[in-house]
Design goal:
Layout: E1 2-6, H1 18-24, E2 29-33, H2 41-48, E3 53-56, H3 65-70, E4 76-79, H4 89-95, E5 98-100, H5 107-122, H6 125-133, E6 149-153, H7 157-168, E7 172-176, H8 182-188, E8 191-192, H9 195-201, E9 204-207, H10 221-226, E10 232-235, H11 244-253, E11 258-261, E12 281-283, H12 292-310
Parallel strand pairs: 1-2, 1-3, 3-4, 4-5, 6-7, 6-9, 7-8, 9-10, 10-11, 11-12
Length: 319
């Protein structure tokens, strides 16, 4: 029997799913699932002791050098999701531990969610809903996004989809990426510009890059100062891309008009986090990719990655 550990299914995503039943039904496979998040490195190590493969659900679970070096017998970390910033890839490569992910399974869902956050802020939906429920009938000036400029930072699968749906509602699009090409610009119907220009000229800025040493803290005080006071900032990528103190100060001072945040540097969001105090922020709990369609596709791919690894094939390899 080979052990597959799922150490962090909280809140439950894979539990009771069709994908988990398929994994549990595989011959010679023992599956252990924890419906809570590890409280420490030691707790994580206890949960994955003896595991041949780990199916990682939550990006908050950190596979550090110590964890990977101490996990005797671990051969495979199968990530549900695209981002692999919670795994020390250098150490995994050195130890011969394969790391796989599930690319492009939530592309449509995350892009739709990004636009939904932008529309919620532009049309002041949370505020108006709250006031009507309180017995008011306010008249408010809203912001129309058609005819405005969407700035998309990162044009991978999700960023490209964001370009398409933004153009679909009548927005012009500017984009920045680490590796722009004229062919890609023509294909997507956009104009690549430098990051400063995008921030200065966009009415909505939507973040769609991976978290890496190169992109950590990409949006800080200087970048926010470049944005328009009427601009909306959206992050459905990773919290570590943004200096949250600088974002708080910019929102408080009116440097930008609002922010829609699905991801934070530390999750769940601390009850005392200062961004909670601001009325011009709309939060969602890192749930942009959790539509029924995206969940089913992503979980099936994660399980396939595990089963195929047992068969000697490495699909969707990160390292």
């Amino acid at each position: 029997m080979v052990l597959v550990a799922i150490p962090d299914d909280d809140p439950p995503v894979i539990s009771q799913s069709r994908a988990l039943l398929r994994l549990q039904a595989a011959p010679d496979v023992d599956v252990k699932v924890w419906n809570s998040r590890p409280g420490s490195e030691s707790d994580l190590l206890r949960r994955i002791t003896g595991a041949h493969s780990v199916l990682n659900v939550r990006s908050t679970t950190q596979f550090t050098t110590r964890v990977l070096e101490s996990a005797d017998g671990l051969k495979h970390v199968a990530i549900w999701g695209t981002g692999a910033d919670n795994v020390d890839l250098f150490t995994a490569r050195r130890l011969g531990i394969a790391v796989t992910n599930t690319p492009n399974t939530a592309t449509v869902s995350v892009a739709e969610h990004s636009l939904a956050l932008a529309l919620a802020l532009a049309h002041r939906l949370p505020e108006l809903n709250s006031r009507v429920r309180a017995g008011e009938w306010p008249r408010s000036l809203l912001t129309q996004l058609a005819g405005k400029t969407m700035g998309v930072i990162g044009t991978g699968a999700i960023g490209s989809r964001m370009v398409q749906i933004s153009r679909g509602i009548g927005m012009k699009v500017l984009a920045w990426t680490l590796h722009p090409t004229d062919e890609r610009a023509t294909q997507l119907g956009l104009r690549y510009v430098d990051l400063d220009t995008l921030l200065k000229e966009s009415d909505v800025v939507s973040l769609h890059v991976r978290l890496s040493p190169q992109t950590r803290g990409l949006i800080g005080a200087r970048q926010l100062e470049l944005m328009r006071p009427t601009a909306i900032f959206i992050n459905t990528a990773r919290g570590g891309l943004v200096d949250e103190d600088a974002l708080y100060n910019a929102l408080l001072a009116g440097t930008i008009a609002g922010a829609g945040l699905d991801t934070m540097a530390v999750e769940p969001l601390d009850r005392e986090h200062p961004l909670r105090e601001l009325p011009n922020v709309v939060f969602t709990p890192h749930t942009a990719g959790t539509t029924a369609e995206a969940l089913a596709t992503g979980l099936d791919m994660a399980v396939d990655n595990v089963l195929h690894f047992f068969a000697g094939r490495v699909d969707n390899r990160v390292t």
